[in-house]
Amino acid sequence: MVIAVYPGSFDPATYGHLDVIRRASVSFDKVIVGVLHNSAKSPLFSVEERVNILEKATKDMANVEIKAFEGLSVNFARENHAQVIVRGLRAVTDFEFELQMAQTNRVLAPDVDTVFLTTSLEYAYLSSTIMKEVASYDGDLSKFAPPEITEAVKKKMHDLKK
Ligand code: ADP
Predict the structure, then answer these.
(1) What confidence category does residue 38 fall into, taking pLDDT thresholds of 50, 70 and 90?
(2) Cα 21 to ligand 1 centroid, rounded to whole Å
(3) pTM tops 0.85, yes or no
(4) Given pLDDT bands bounded at 50, 70 and 90, which one contains residue 142?
(5) Is residue 160's pLDDT more than 90?
(6) Burial annotation 61-80 (CB, 10 A radius, 16+ → b, else e)
(7) Active-site hit among 41, 59, 161, 162
(8) In the sheet that 84-89 helps form, which strands lie side by side, from edge to edge?
(9) Residue nearest to atom 24 of ligand 1 (CA)
(10) Is 158 a catalytic residue?
(11) Is the peptide bond before 110 cis (omega within 30 degrees of 0)?
(12) Candidates 39, 87, 125, 143: which one to mutate for ligand 1, based on the most atoms within 8 Å of Cβ?
C-alpha cells in the first residue's frame, strides 16, 4: 500500500490544489493532505477552517484524508507511514525552490521520495495568493475554486473590512 502526503498551506484550496489531490488519489492508495500550521505566516483562514474547507471539497474522494500538521513535511510523512510526498509544479518559478526542498527532504529522510505532479494547464497561473488578491478587489472568483470556497473567501474578506 503506497501512502502519499500532500503538504501545503492551502489558504484556501483552489482548483489547482484540488486537481493535484484528485490526480494523486488515482496514483496512490491513500492521500493525506497536510494543512500546515505555520506560526510565521499570517493566513487568511485558520488551520481548522482550511481543513474544513478541504474536507468538504474532497468528500467524494474516498481515499483522501485531510489533517493539520506542524513542523517538517518529512516528519508528517513518517508519522503517517507515507513513502511519498506530493508537490505540484506550476512553472519554472516553482522549480528552484521545490527542487531544493525535495533535496533537503531527501537528506533528512532518504526513505521518503518527493513526486511532482505538473499542474493542469488551465490552472498553471493559479495560486491562493492570486485568488485572495482578486477577492480583495471584489473580482469574479468563479474560475479559481468551487462555489463553497469562493463564498468563504468573500465572506472572510467582507468580515475583515468591517
Ligand atoms: P506552500 O506554502 O507549501 O507553497 P501552497 O498551498 O501554496 O503551499 O501549495 C501547496 C502545493 O500545491 C505546492 O506544491 C504548490 O506548488 C502546489 N500548487 C499550488 N497551486 C497549484 C496549482 N494551481 N496547480 C498545481 N499545483 C499547485
Answers:
(1) confident
(2) 11
(3) yes
(4) very high
(5) no
(6) beebbbeebeeebbebbbeb
(7) 41
(8) 64-69, 30-36, 3-8, 84-89, 113-118
(9) 16
(10) no
(11) no
(12) 87
